[in-house]
Write a structure and sequence with these properties.
Elements (H helix, E strand, L loop, with lengths): L31 E2 L1 E16 L5 E12 L1 E12 L6 E8 L1 H7 L11 H6 L6 E9 L11 E8 L3 H11 L6 H4 L5 E7 L4 E3 L1 H5 L34 E3 L3 E13 L22 E6 L9 E6 L13 E5 L7
Antiparallel strand pairs: 1-7, 2-3, 2-13, 2-14, 3-12, 4-5, 4-6, 6-7, 8-11, 8-13, 9-10, 11-12
Amino acid sequence: MTRGSMQYWQKRRAYRRLPRMRAIPRGTKDAALSSMVGYKVGMTNATVLEESQKASEINRACTVVEIPQTEVYGIRVYSKDRNTGYLKIANEFYDKTAAQRAGVKKITAEKEKVDAAKQDASKYARVSLLIAAYPKGTATGQHHADRFEAQIMGKGAAEKLEYATKMLGKEVKPYDLFKNGEHIDIISISKGKGWKGVIKRFGVARLARKATQKVRHVGTLGAFGMGRVLPSVPQSGQLGFNYRTERNKRILKIGKKEEAQNVNPKSGYINYGNVVSDYILIDGSIPGPAKRMVRIRKSIDNMDAKGVKEPKVTYLAATGKAI
């Protein structure tokens, strides 16, 4: 961040641990799920064989993300308000067994009533899946389910409802949604650093010791006659724990639960432990510390329009072997 940068203003804390998602990819032909969640494990480096670059091996820093058991427990449909134009919840449908497992106390309508909603599909503006991630058993130390909502991509509401009905009550696997070599967007919350001053927060230069009473502060907050302080003036405040989206990160490898031991070092990952579930190996770094919840979304820039080129990981530094 450059000195005095307002690129990520306001620097306020995120409202909750679940990363918010404001947009989904548009123009997709078939109905499909737009995102899922995982937990950041840690970083390592891998040697990747790229066939597109004349079979040359490239050493890349990469991040391991563990995907817990994920189950669809409900469907939520939205309609557009006639007066305001805003979206409002029109109806919800649940798989009773899955919803009770996820901890839903109030079950309004069960999945048998979805067929009636399909006849009125034209009045729905958005169709989403209600999903629960069960981190119990992972190294996060969390025992309660993380419930979140994920939109369904596609053109028509009828197709989205048909897809949602098929997914209701079933598990969502990362290899069913993504492919090796595919580009994705990572939405996460950065590492929180608490209340910090202007030196740490904006990189403001320290003042001369003899010229002022204070050294680590801003010399002036603005003109005397303005009567207010502009928001562009650096001031102390919250640093970190902000929503961040990094686009077009590449998947190097999607591993199944049975292959989890192939990415675990002998002593486990620092501040995390061992991977025991499905995992995704992502090229580069992602925001947040270990055990932070991250949302993995289909690339909104449609980076793979010309096809996905699958890489091959020939060496992983964490284990010292290929995966």
